[in-house]
Amino acid sequence: MSNATHSIGGWSHAIIDYVIVALMLLGPSVAGFAGRQATWMYVFGVVLLVTSLLTRYPLGAMKAIAFPAHGAIETILGLLLLILPWMAEFARGIKSRNFYVAMGVMLLLVAALTDYRGRRVAR
User: Fold this and answer.
1) What is the pTM of this model?
2) How would residue 52 be classed by pLDDT, with cut points 50, 70 and 90?
3) How far apart are CA 106 and CA 102, in angstroms?
4) Residue 88 DSSP code
5) Rounded Cα–Cα distance for residues 13 and 17 (Å)
């Protein structure tokens, strides 16, 4: 969303990423699901954590991934989170399915609202 006054900048995006990582890593035990549903969520959490640590944005540690590439990775993760319950045949688990859908929607929303090119209009 270039030139949008309601877009998310690098600092805010980085903070949101680490909050989402925490949700992904704590979510299965809090939401009450285990097994491969939980394992896959932990994998997504670790992938997002590593991606965040390697991104060239304010809270990235190694700054090896361009912020727009980070956005592409997040979009792919968000889409995978939305479809995995049905692809991996655990959509009947209401707790895990709903958690996956919520995490997918959250990632896609953050990706859609983020100004990856730093073109926000200052107020």
Assistant:
1) 0.89
2) very high
3) 6
4) T
5) 6
